[in-house]
Amino acid sequence: MTTIKIAGVPEHFNLPWHIAIENGDFEKENIDLQWTDIPEGTGKMCQMLRSGETDIAVILTEGIVKDITAGNPSKIVQVYVESPLIWGIHVAANSSFKTIDDLENKKVAISRLGSGSQLMAYVNAGNQGWKTDNLQFEIINTIDGAVQALTTGTADYFMWERFMTKPLVDQGVFRKIADCPTPWPCFVIAVSDEMLKSQPAVIKNILTIINNTTQDFKSIPNIEQILASKYLQKTEDIQEWLSLTQWSQNSASEEMLNKVQNQLFELKIIDKKGTFEDIVKAV
Is residue 173 located within the same domain as residue 241? Predict the structure, then answer.
């Protein structure tokens, strides 16, 4: 049995992994796939790939591209979710901010430096024509930290996946001001160079199994109810999310990588671009 460590956010996008693990699909192939939930998100997973705490990460595209160009010894082996991530831009329910324009030069809560929540704050600022040099950040680690920061006023707004944050909007904790979709496929699968070198056949096998699972995921009986119950969502919100979400079974393309790198470079999030071979490896 080959033990492989994998990390991802505790969100609905990753239910296919849990289903495949629970069904014993990896075990049948002599793979002990050990999943770890990472509520802190992409910045933490980049750190785990670097340190060897995880072999694989299901991770935000922009975050891992940024970290590989900064020396993370890993490669993107596949796109996992083809559709954009829809980031909701949230404020405290009782705050005086009413429109996106009210948030210029205000402090944004981010899970950690290098996280998707930080990178998308730059993307949003670029979309609005704001000076990205003026962005101020408050590190809050998790969504619970964001609730505290916005409620007490140590941060002014928070960007997080719209549907996972919806229960807090429904409860009257947050108010959503706007959406900011990623301009590229949102999640990719990244693997450490060490694992790609030592276990290429096992990695290929893992991708085959998860791709079979995601291909049929939407046709699983009662999947809306399963997702709603597990992630504390309303069924109608899950139905909308499923209609907008498209899993992928394909490698990352050069065109997609160029789009991500060009925007990150333009926003001064990266200071140099990597080659396709530096960042992507087909297995």
Answer: no
